[in-house]
Amino acid sequence: MAHVELGMKVRDSITGYTGIAVARTQWLHGCVRITIQGDALKDGAPLDPYTVDEPQVEVVVEEAAPSAEPRHGERPAPMRPPTPPRR
Question: What is the pTM of this model?
Fold first, then answer.
């Protein structure tokens, strides 16, 4: 069993469902679940995500997708308007 990194292309070994690993959930007693977002469309919409136990997942492509990085410059700190005087 290969360690699954987010962004890797993976397949459920039982159903054959293939897609990108988009979430990794670790439960209290050690169960690790991987959520797979299918890379196919049905009626023009993406398939629903599918969650399976990590040992059931096969890595199809070892290289993970590039991580999302901010695409916009730094944001200025929010400014609070001055408090109006009390009457």
Answer: 0.68
